[in-house]
Write the structure tokens for this entry.
Amino acid sequence: MTTSTIERLQHVFRDQFEDDAISITRDTTAADIEEWDSVLHIRLILAIEEAFGIRFSTTEVGDLTSVGDLVDRIDAHL
């Protein structure tokens, strides 16, 4: 994980959740953010793919359980 990845990801989360107070860590999960439902999850993944210029496979998305997993997947694509 690089600091820049989680910082960039923080901006995507704040934009998608429309909440500048959201603070993510590697341990953050969907259960930690009340608004994080299945529809927002799809929007979030699409926004992350666009922001980082990457594409996740269906398997990768299905295996994500925390922000830390997401950071690791992003870093693997970069």
Residues 8 and 78 are 13 Å apart (CA to CA).
